[in-house]
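Summary for the funding panel

The consortium committed to producing paired sequence-structure records for every protein in the target list. Below we show the first two records in order, beginning with the earlier of the two.
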Amino acid sequence: MSVRLNPYLGFRSGAREALDFYHSVFHGQLTIGTFGEAGMSQDPADADKVMHGQLEGENGLLLMASDAPTGMETPSESTISLSLSGDDDEALTRYWNGLADGATIIEPLTKAPWGDTFGMLTDRFRVTWLVNISGSTS
């Protein structure tokens, strides 16, 4: 038996573009299903929106996302940050570099006071990412 916590990003629209971008960063297998394909689009404008997208990236990363159909409210009050951490300097630096494309850098990926390498950014889809490389010599 196992339990897994999976980040699930919600968008008004644009989930496909975001998932394609994250796929370019994390690689792996991307699957996308639309409201139209599932027969769940009440509004023709929703047919091509993402009902469920899932990226099974390298190193066991899993990220999911969807668009909101017409009439569904999306919260604007809450925020979420996603954290990538570990000791694989090469992989985590590569992820940072990919996510940084078009991002606002909050804290550059540099040596932190606690001894690790740390950086924080908000990507072009307004998702905030924290990257911590344990024991890194970067």
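The next record, for a separate protein in the list, is shown here:
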Amino acid sequence: MDMKLEGKSVLVTASSKGLGKAIATEFAREGAYVLISSRDEDALKEAAEAIKRETENSHVDYQVCDMKDGKQITELVEKAAGSTGGIDVLINNAGGPPAGRFMDMEDNDWYHAFELNLLSFVRTIRATVPYMQKEGEGRIVNVASSSIKQSLDNLVLSNTLRPGIPGLSKTLAQELSEDQILINTVGPGTIETDRMIELNRFTADQQGIPLDELKTEAEEGIPMKRYGRPEEFAKAVVFLASGANTYITGQSLIVDGGLVKAL
């Protein structure tokens, strides 16, 4: 299948590691011009070089950006547009909020999670849409969590704020369809990343069991009996953000090996 991504301008946020890096790698593999971002410049440099080596695509650049800073987001989008004169694809991604129960969280935790996991998406889309409107088309994929379909234990911040993302995507699918801008949400289930290891460690400590034991139990609960791989998640994102997708918009997809039971 021709993804029609050769030479396209792609911005992937929070992409120095984990799912963001895996997504950026798949776009680079398809021949796109890819801009990655995170707050850690050293990690970005390392990630950009690694993606170039793996994909043999030299058109991979980076910019430091704190996704809670509106000015930095605007500058990031401007740089992404600068490489080709526009932005064809936006992948919104952000680090997950801290684990914890409702009574563990103070006001600052809620403000931080709102800025990082919802407002940053609003800001990035708002800055990007004019470039897509000028081109007459575009693709946006918002990376969320399986908590958009089914709540997760000890993740009250994610359970509360992440569901706002498909609400935003559904609304924008209606508003932007006349501009041929397709926007969808993709939520990871149990994908083997540093974030998942961190959450598992939190849960294992709470339950007083070894980390390996927790992982074995978790895998038994997944119909496919294993954690997903970042590249498996990335391929789903890339399809929805590609020229091969011409009619899917406003939808929410969970990539989870069948774990989530909600419809």
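Regarding this second record: Residues 107-135 form the longest helix (29 residues). The chain has two domains: 9-190+230-255, 192-227.
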